[in-house]
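To assess whether the prediction recovers the assembly geometry, we first specified each molecular entity separately, as shown.
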Amino acid sequence: MIKVINWNINSIKSRLNHLLLLIKEEDPDIIMLQELKCETDKFPYVEFETLGYNLLINGQKTYNGVAILSKYPCEDTTSSLPSYNIDDNDQQARYIETICTINKKIWRFISVYVPNGQEVESEKYSYKLNFLERLHQHLNNLKTDQENLVIGGDFNIANQDIDVYDPKTLTEKLCFSLKEKKHLRKIINSGFSDTYRLLNQNITQFSWWDYRAGAYQKNNGLRIDYIFSNHTATNQLKESFVLEKFRTLEKPSDHIPIVSIYEENT
DNA sequence: ATGGTCGGTTGCCGA
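The predicted structure of the complete assembly is given in tokenized form:
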């Protein structure tokens, strides 16, 4: 069994105890994190090495930052998404990819923090769409039919009406505009499954609620965090669920962890 | 109700 968790933690420093609680309660094999808001060499390595994790960190000061924590040894780690001449000077820490060998099978894991985009048609919105295009190209170039590929991330896009609290109000708003959805669907349709949706059809479950305006109390949320897996991995998918409890703790992240469990075919 | 609340950093940005 391989238990994978994805979580936008919104500051590793502020949420250290929540992450330790998550590990204590769920004992995941792989944890993919976003928004560390911490420089690579300031990550609290010891706490997690003590718990048996290999740590792959791509951090930066104040903003962004992604990580993969793995109980299995990792190799060939890359901390940048190729630019493909689309965005040649991208310095933001939004991507990390690594390969684990688990029971002699190759599992490639990616943790990605897609740009928020600030406002539809803004400069940052273009950067968001460009980033998604780069991600799409990179995933196509991996040609990973022979291996298992699992992508966890905060994509900052809700895919369908069922994934938002009020599709009418949110039409063409940031994180629900047609251009964003088309970019997201292009990635999914290139050979991935949305693991939570695959096993929980017709259920409205959000992964993020704004800190502002009592959004959580009103359940005004969006499902923008995902675990995607390729066909090979999805064939082994057994369970997928969210841990909404982590939005009810004191000083929570505005996002909740998502869990997907794979059972290796024998 | 076109507002509000966080985190990291220091008077404001990003989400």
